């Protein structure tokens, strides 16, 4: 079987070309004003700093603005809430990204939920999640929404198919399951307490690895012809799924790197553009 490579890197680049044109058109209509993303990084984790930088760079490539708020590792919940409130009030900021994780003394949920719905381009608020889950208008959570855009582009059939999502985190597994359900998939959510994980995965037409553990999902658990989506990214360039032995017997798969990661960033800036269009038009 020749498996389809779900090439997130190439698709993100293609989408950026469209977005660049849309940004230029919006700018012309809006007297030179452009959509702007505010990123908030708390602490000095080097991997988080790299991701935040990549998000700012992506804005720049399509002609959008970005501002970077950097706060010390000792920041309190009250201080972070104040920083978010200020960005909520700033008419030149159209989207807000609070990089996860934040230091443990901070109430991350309270801070996510302080982001104004219309600026929640990363899809992290309870309100946005609830609206998305109910099929109402909302910006989806960036990683699962990026996966949905990738599957849609490659016309991977979802309706009636059995999707098994491994992981139930608030910004990945849980919204992923709701989005697949919204696309009429039959969805199983597995997690760290699931018994007989392998048996569940053997039933899957579509497997989404979202556990955050390197190659936790073994190739032998995945049936021939399945669609494999790997949202993990670990040192050494491996994901949550043991991809090596799979690439010639599945129907489609996302490479790591170059699959889900670039679509996450693209979705964030895509939704920032949409928020900018709403505010500036
Ligand atoms: N509020 C919040 N929203 C997020 O969306 C969010 C977050 N917090 N915290 C951390 C994770 C991680 N994340 C990635 C984004 C892009 C790549 C990416 O583009 N990776 C490249 C490789 C990057 C490299 O060169 O190392 C790839 O997969 O091809 C990876 C990981 C977003 N996250």
Automatic annotation (TrEMBL):
It catalyses: (6R)-5,10-methylene-5,6,7,8-tetrahydrofolate + NADP(+) = (6R)-5,10-methenyltetrahydrofolate + NADPH; (6R)-5,10-methenyltetrahydrofolate + H2O = (6R)-10-formyltetrahydrofolate + H(+). Pathway: One-carbon metabolism; tetrahydrofolate interconversion. CDD domains: NAD_bind_m-THF_DH_Cyclohyd. One of its GO terms (molecular function) is methylenetetrahydrofolate dehydrogenase (NADP+) activity. PANTHER family: C-1-TETRAHYDROFOLATE SYNTHASE, CYTOPLASMIC, C-1-TETRAHYDROFOLATE SYNTHASE, CYTOPLASMIC-RELATED. This is Bifunctional protein FolD. Belongs to the tetrahydrofolate dehydrogenase/cyclohydrolase family. Catalyzes the oxidation of 5,10-methylenetetrahydrofolate to 5,10-methenyltetrahydrofolate and then the hydrolysis of 5,10-methenyltetrahydrofolate to 10-formyltetrahydrofolate. The gene is folD. NADP(+) binds at residues 167-169. Keywords: Amino-acid biosynthesis, Histidine biosynthesis, Hydrolase, Methionine biosynthesis, Multifunctional enzyme, NADP, One-carbon metabolism, Oxidoreductase, Purine biosynthesis. Gene3D superfamilies: Leucine Dehydrogenase, chain A, domain 1, NAD(P)-binding Rossmann-like Domain. The lineage of its organism: Bacteria, Pseudomonadati, Pseudomonadota, Gammaproteobacteria, Oceanospirillales. Its EC number is 1.5.1.5, 3.5.4.9.
């Amino acid at each position: 079987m020749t498996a389809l490579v779900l090439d997130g890197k190439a698709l993100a680049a293609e989408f950026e070309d469209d977005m660049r044109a849309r940004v230029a058109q919006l700018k012309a209509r809006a007297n030179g004003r452009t959509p702007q993303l505010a990123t908030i990084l708390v602490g000095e984790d080097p991997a988080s700093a790299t991701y935040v930088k990549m998000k700012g760079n992506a804005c720049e490539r399509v002609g959008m603005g970005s501002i970077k708020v950097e706060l010390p590792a000792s920041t309190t919940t009250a201080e972070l809430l104040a920083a978010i409130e200020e960005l909520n009030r700033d008419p030149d900021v159209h989207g807000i990204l609070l990089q996860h994780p934040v230091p443990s003394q901070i109430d991350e949920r309270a801070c996510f939920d302080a982001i104004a719905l219309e600026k929640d381009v990363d899809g992290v608020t309870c309100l946005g999640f609830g609206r998305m889950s109910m099929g109402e208008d909302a910006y989806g959570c960036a990683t699962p929404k990026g996966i949905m855009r990738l599957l849609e582009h490659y016309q991977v059939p979802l309706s009636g198919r059995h999707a098994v999502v491994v992981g139930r985190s608030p910004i990945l597994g849980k919204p992923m399951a709701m989005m697949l359900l919204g696309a009429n998939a039959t969805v199983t959510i597995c997690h760290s307490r699931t018994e007989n994980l392998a048996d569940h995965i053997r039933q899957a037409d579509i497997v989404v690895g979202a556990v955050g553990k390197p190659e936790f999902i073994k190739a032998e658990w995945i049936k021939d012809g399945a669609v494999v989506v790997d949202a993990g990214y670990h040192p050494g360039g491996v994901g949550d799924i043991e991809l090596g032995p799979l690439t010639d017997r599945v129907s489609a798969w996302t490479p790591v790197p170059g699959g889900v990661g670039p679509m996450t960033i693209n979705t964030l800036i895509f939704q920032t553009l949409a928020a900018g269009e709403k505010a500036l038009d």
